[in-house]
Design brief:
rSAM_sf; EC 2.8.1.8; two-stranded parallel ribbon; 4 iron, 4 sulfur cluster binding; eight-stranded mixed β-sheet; iron-sulfur; globular; TIM Barrel; 36% helix
Length: 289
């Protein structure tokens, strides 16, 4: 595997650890997980300092073994019926205006956890009617009823990441399917024009520019509204090596192409992750009919 040295421009700035500990303490008190911690996100300091977090629901054990992820794989515990209530309590204490909720993949559940996502959405909406609710969902194996259940709960944004270019699926995320991921995003728009759709891709794994641009075109074909592109960074437990540190100029090029293709909002930079600074795209909701 290539021995790629981390460039000088890929550095996380200084973070305030006391603010991080305060958010971590709240999560522990409410028996909640954050994807920020479980997936070793490089932006954890910035998000926690701003008292924001992406809630990881349905446990912290995944039924899939994606090579890019640091979340444990195995047999998950049963769903916690109190989790929707705890999410609302955390949103209140953090005074959130934009809540992001994601989950591990739960292939062990008949509906993939769709009803749980829907219940969390309803509870959050009951707490605060104008709260922006963003759900980052697994592919639900492409099951129509599961995806409809989530849509009918009326979140503001449904995010589902394609993760990598199709050629790298077997290597990076072998239990996923590129066409199913596109189907999920397409279904959301077919059932509700009011919900914004969002997807993301990692680079630095050996893809070509042409392959990345084709993914962007495929996402626009299913009317995806928001795009995120970030650098793959190897988690401690992963054997999936970084092939390239993509230069910031290339990220800027992808951003320009994304807007030219018709995306309503594009976040493209080395440390961009699907839910980092998610609130920046909230202005789009005011334009939706």
């Amino acid at each position: 595997m290539p021995n790629v040295r981390k460039p000088e421009w890929l550095r996380i700035g200084k973070v305030q650890r006391e603010e991080i500990r305060q958010v971590q303490k709240l999560m522990r008190e409410l028996h909640l997980h954050t994807v920020c911690e479980e997936s070793m996100c490089p932006n954890i300091g910035k998000c926690f300092v701003n008292k924001t977090a992406t809630f990881l629901v349905m446990g912290n054990v995944c039924t899939r073994n994606c090579k890019f992820c640091d979340i444990a794989t195995g047999r998950p515990q049963p769903l916690d019926p109190m989790e929707p209530k705890h999410i609302v309590e955390a949103a209140k204490k953090l005074n959130l205006e934009h809540v992001v909720v994601t989950s591990v993949t739960r292939d062990d559940l008949t509906d993939g956890g769709a009803a749980h996502f829907a219940e969390i959405t309803r509870k959050l909406r009951e707490y605060k009617e104008d709260l922006i609710i963003e759900l980052l969902i697994p592919d639900m194996k492409g099951k129509v009823e599961s995806i409809k259940t989530i849509i009918e709960a009326k979140p503001n944004i449904i995010n589902h990441n394609v993760e990598v270019v199709p050629r790298l699926y077997k290597k990076v995320t072998p239990q996923a399917n590129y066409e199913i991921s596109l189907k999920v995003l397409k279904m959301v728009k077919e059932y509700s024009k009011k919900i914004l759709t969002k997807s993301g891709i990692m680079v630095g794994l050996g893809e070509t520019k042409e392959e990345v641009i084709q993914v962007l075109k495929d996402l626009r074909k299913v009317d995806c509204d928001i795009l995120t592109i970030g650098q793959y960074l190897k988690p401690p437990s992963s054997n999936l090596e970084i092939e390239e540190y993509v230069h910031p100029d290339t990220f800027k090029e992808y951003e320009k192409i994304g807007y030219e293709l018709g995306f309503k909002f594009v976040a493209s930079a080395p440390f961009v992750r699907s839910s980092f600074n998610a609130k920046e795209a909230d202005f789009l909701l005011a334009t939706e009919v």
